[in-house]
Amino acid sequence: MTITEKILARASGKQKLSPGDVMFATVDRVMLHDVSGPGVIKVFSEWEKKRGLKLTQIWDPDRVWVTEDHFVPSVDRISAENITNLSNFTKQYGINKHFKYGLGQYGICHTLSHEEGMVLPGEVYVGGDSHTNTTGAIGAFAAGLGHTDIAYVLMNGRIWFKVPETMLFKINGIKPDHIMAKDIILKIIGDIGTDGANYKAMQFAGSITKDLPMEERLTLTNMTTEAGAKNGIIEPDETTYAYLRERTDAKYSPVHGDPDAHYSEVFTYEIEKLEPTVAKPFSPGNISAARELQGTELDKAYIGSCTGAKLEDLRAAAEILKDRKVKIRTEVLPAAQSIYMKALKEGLINIFMQAGAVVGPPTCGACCGAHMGVLGKDEVCISTTNRNFPGRMGHVESKTYLASPIVVAASAVTGRITDPRDVRN
Amino acid sequence: MLRGRVHKYDSDNIDTDVIIPGPYLKIHDHKELAKHAMEGIDPSFPGKVSQGDFLVAGNNFGCGSSREHAPIALSQTGIKAILAQSFARIFYRNAVDGGYLLPIEIEKSTVKKISDGDKLEIDIANNKITNITKNEHYFMKPFPELIAKIVEAGGLINYKADY
Questions:
Q1: Which of A57, A163, A212, A363 is 20–30 Å from A2 (CA)?
Q2: What is the pLDDT along chain B (163 residues), one digit of tens a residue?
Q3: Which residues neighbour B115 within 8 Å (Cβ) at sequence distance 6 or greater?
């Protein structure tokens, strides 16, 4: 069995599972945020109204955490009241891990999941957000669900899954310094398409995956969602364990795939052959080499989100922006308060501000076109985020190009889509 | 037996950002969400739909976010089923587990044969679709066993799971 199959087998008390089997799995961790949380509360109120089902307690408050990330700082009265409702809910049901905007550590849900070491290897983790896949880089089964399913988990501690087939992506070679994990995953999505992994698991392996630091691995799994995958996963190793040791002393029992595990497809990439890659409007699968697009005029560069504002992302962008000036509006929003503080300590925030960029608080805001820098009609943006559907970051006639932090930083310097090699002298 | 008129959007990858754009995610009132259904592709959509109508689209319908606002908004306009070549996984399970609407998979050739405005009759029990306007018959892909049971129960909360 693959790692995904083995985790699901363990969670459903089965000796063996095969792709296509449907089972109810016991859940280890659950996440809700300020969009899915109020959605879940609404589901409970509908169940009570229509079915007389009153929620007296939730299955295990210690396995649940809540973040405020999409509409913080509050955009208007509705979003402020959503936060109030969420706070009342966590208080009522004894959920102590509620990361509040403006009250110590907080940030984007997926970033907190790993930054706080809240999901452990071998676990089943579900979240009320499609990019929950991100945390699979820890060696867990991590998948996004909607409000009804999360409400069901909060009541029962279980949810149904169809065991996915696993596609294996082996990435080998010696990593050039103009290539980041974002280039790898954009290339893969370009190759297999935005539904190329629908209902499937995407597992990453190979010498490069082993060499990548944890945060770069998380970029790979984060964007498996853009290929339609049920989950993205990487087998845990010493890099994983060292990352977790710095964050938690919780015990866990990792799971590894069997040597004779069956993969539905195996893809091999030689990293030296990759180019700095950009996904053009309006699909993460619509890729080109950055150099093929050079000269494309931009209005804005955005360095933010769970995909592209982790500490490694900020370090990479700062390496380009150091002693340079940005030519277009550039916004940097670290993905969590703790990352913001580390960036401050390392002098990265100073580099961004000296370059002329604005640095903002952690939020999903502009990535999902909600607030804090949405795009107007005809505006063109290059972004470290994960989606560029029509209207994703603002007006339906705005355009977003997706790229790695170093491509975005290099493009900020020139005001046009730029390969980082072309600004590094 | 379901009967209704077709609203056809002949494209692949109709994503959740066009089904219900990001700024509306803060809204949780179902009727309010319906006013913005499909706003990113056709702002006039909610006004066109009658109770029980169908939406027909191509591949990978509902890709993108996990927002349950998407099937809620569509169902609240009156849409009873979506007929598409394939669905993104979270949209599919949200539609079924929430009991909002039926995600029905049909062949690419069937998508082509159905036109905007056609009247359809869908026989879920026998996996048959009749195009009354064109006097044609199509097959729908049967629901997998668990999905059929959850559909029959009217949502996951009503389904008695045997763990």
A1: A212
A2: 999 999 999 999 999 999 999 999 999 999 999 999 999 999 999 999 999 999 999 999 999 999 999 999 999 999 999 999 999 999 999 999 999 999 999 999 999 999 999 999 999 999 999 999 999 999 999 999 999 999 999 999 999 988 8
A3: B6, B8, B133, B134
Residue A49: other Cβ atoms inside 10 A: 9
* Contact between B21 and A162 using a beta-carbon 8 Å cutoff: no
Write out the two tokens for B113. 């044969």
Residue A367 distance to chain B (closest CA, Å) = 9
At A19 the three-state DSSP class reads coil
B97/A148 CB distance under 8 A: yes
Q: Which domains does chain A have, with CATH numbers?
A: 3-268 (3.30.499.10), 277-422 (3.30.499.10)
- Tell me which residue of A66, A83, A79, A4 sits closest to A29, measured CA to CA: A66
A130 Cα distance to chain centroid: 9
pTM of the model: 0.97
Site of tokens 């980082």: A420
Closest CB from B89, B98, B163 relative to A24: B163
Q: Is A6 helix (H, G, I), strand (E, B) or coil?
A: helix
Strand pairing report for B102-105 and B81-84: parallel
Structural domains in chain B, sorted by start = 2-158 (3.20.19.10)
Within 8 A of A396 by CB-CB distance, chain B residues are 18, 40
Q: Note the ipTM here.
A: 0.96
Which residue, among A335, A270, A310, A290, has the nearest Cα to A178 in the 3D structure?
A290
Supply the DSSP string of A4-49, one letter for each residue.
HHHHHHHHTT-S---TT-EEEEE-SEEEE-TTHHHHHHHHHHHHHH
Chain A residues touching B69 at Cβ < 8 A: 39
Is the bond preceding residue B139 a cis peptide, omega within 30 degrees? Answer: no
Closest to B23 (Cβ–Cβ): which among A51, A130, A370? A370
Residue type, B18: V
- Contact at CB, A75 and B98, closer than 8 angstroms: no
A144 in contact with B at a CB cutoff of 8 Å?
Answer: yes
CA-CA distances (angstroms) from residue A143 to A17, A159, A208, A335?
Answer: 18, 11, 24, 20
Chain B nearest CA to A368, separation (Å): 6
Question: Are β-strands B128-131 and B136-139 bridged in parallel, bridged antiparallel, or unpaired?
Answer: antiparallel
Q: How far apart are CA B94 and CA B97, in angstroms?
A: 5
CB contact under 8 A, A71 and B158: no
Decide: A145 and A160 in contact? Cβ < 8 Å: no
**Is some CB atom of chain B closer than 8 A to the CB atom of A22?**
yes
Cα of A396 to nearest chain B Cα, Å: 7
User: Listing from the earlier edge strand, what are the strands of the sheet with B81-84?
Assistant: B102-105, B81-84, B54-57, B2-9, B119-123, B128-131, B136-139
Give the C-alpha separation, B162 to A200, whole Å: 25
Amino acid identity, position A335: A
Q: What is the DSSP letter of A46?
A: H
